[in-house]
Amino acid sequence: MQESAAPMPVSALHAAEWDLAYRTHGHALLRYLRRLSPTQEMAEELLHETFARAMRTQGPEPSSDDIRPWLYRIATNIAIDQSRRARRFRFVPFLGIEPAPDRDTDQIDLVRRVLHAMPPEQSTALVLRLHEGFAPPEIAVMLGISESAVRSRLVRGRRKFQETYERMGGLL
User: How far is 138 from 161, CA to CA, in rounded Å?
Assistant: First the structure.
């Protein structure tokens, strides 16, 4: 006989507030996670996990003004964890007959592969700053590090991005 699992604690926010948070921030979070994920499907899974984890949070929840950086912090932590797990288990892709992607898709895929090949701390800082528009002090709060550490990750990340991009065949 199986024992039933205890119910998962759900956040104190009401369903309507979570619906609003998802409608307000879900698209941008998915776009952010897509930049850090190898596939659209993985980004969607990470988005789902972000909101599931946020809803299970026990303790103080952010105000409506602070929910965006709070959700990005959860998404960032989940994406970094996923990236670290994926690095442990790399598979060789099947190289059968595949359609040739167009040039724009090639560039987008190359940028994603470069970001995925970089240390997650650096790629996360770059995407938060350059694509999501967060300022270094906001990134510091989201990642739980100092502002100088954020600036250092950005400098090292830009350098690493350029090296990796060129090594993978991109032209800057």
Answer: 22
